[in-house]
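#structure-requests
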Amino acid sequence: MLLSANNYDVIVIGAGHNGLTNAAFLAKAGLHVLVVEKNSYTGGATASRELYDGWKYSNSSYVCSLFRPEIYNALDLGRHGLKVIPLTSSMTFKQDGDYFGSYHNPNVRRRELMRHSMRDADAAIRFDADIMRWCKLIRNFLLRTPPDPGSFRPRDAFEFAYLMKKFHELSESKIYEFIRFFTMSIAEYLENYFENETILAHYSGGSIIGTGLGVYSPGTAYVALHHAMGDVDGNIGAWGFARGGMGAVSGALASALQAHGGEIRTDAEVAKILVSGNRTTGVRLTSGEELSAKIVVSNLDAKRTFTQIMDESDLPPKLVERARNFKIRGSSGKLNIALDGMPTFSSLPKGSPLTLGHMHFTDTLTRLEKAYDDWKDDRWSTDPYCDVLIPSQYDPSLAPPGKHMMTVFVQYCPVAPEGGWSDDKRDQFGQTVIDQIADYSPDFKNLILHAEIRTPRELEAEIGLTEGNIFQGELTFDQLLFNRPFPGYAQYRGPVRNMYMCGSSTHPGGGVMGAPGANAAREILRDLKKPDTTPAAFSDD
């Protein structure tokens, strides 16, 4: 039977990387799939945009690691142009003019640790082993549907058995240690290993990125693990640049979707998910146009999905209450900067390999915690934590010859400073970040040709991330696994029939991972009794 132009098997709301992943696997299974996107470009937060002539910005997400290689292989994304270049270092500048560098070469890395602390050089071996143990354990669950603890269905019993089997492989002491790890702050956890203040600060940074928590807040140890459990070319914990910017990730996914017959419509914002008889029937766009579909999948965050694009009368009252109370606090800002040349850094010799990786300027836990204190008072941090990268050193497609592009991720930036955001306040926030970098780079300001400054206001207005939260919900223990986004709704199915969720509000959470989209596709295909095209189909478990 031929379908009408406005009638689909599946409509996916939002062309971010999870929405595109979900749609690609469904189209691969032979379904007639449409992805609708409110912006004029695809990718959501995973986009590359030329906002200054000749420069290409990864203007939201900026590094690649968490994206699951199983998805890459199952959709053959290499054939669709996705190439990830591994990063080789990271570093933290010290206020006294020195620095701590974490090098890719293990021997050089150990010598650098020894330069700062002989004890910490030995402790780093134990730390790396422990973190990798937890990474390998958690990775077992990324592409699986969380069990429902209130269910007696065989599937849920099997998933609980699988979970217990993986934990049973640990010793009793390691099980206790893992449970304790989940509830600890990153500062307390790292102090079990390290003594040097700069090393402590350096390893703490990943725990606060995108999170409304500080280094002494319980739960930040897990956030650090969440950032460490990806891989590039089989190197667990490694990070990399997508050639062409992060839009190359969404571009490859869109290409895979279209290769399987899927469609994408941009400038098509959804105003409402249509429901009749407790079953989805399609969507209504803000233009008034209605599109029919047997299944609707929301790639939006859980709060936005259930409080803005669904009628409250179609939802259980308890779910509406949970959606309103869902923790989704924005805490991040972003700068993308076009540079007239490569900046120099006073502490580093020219051509230092450390400029090829992450560069940070916050060298103590005290400074990190004070940055968080500002955010709690609804101010942007006067001494922010910045994660600075210059990817044009790897990828010449991002800037003209001899020029460079710098990307700066910033903690902390409030959802609404006192009196709310204005363009003037946004620029003041950006100037605070630029001033901090200039403290360590004497020629930096003179090289700036253009700067895009993004606060939670811009992230929400442009991409639809509620409060600018990059993870579509805090990664705290009460919002993980079968509690993500809410108890009873962790298996990607919505409260009405044929409505699903595939965004980062669902398990296993945020980051450019693709796992929520793939997991939701698997559940949809299971419900439709269609062959599974997702990576789970090739799993040995």
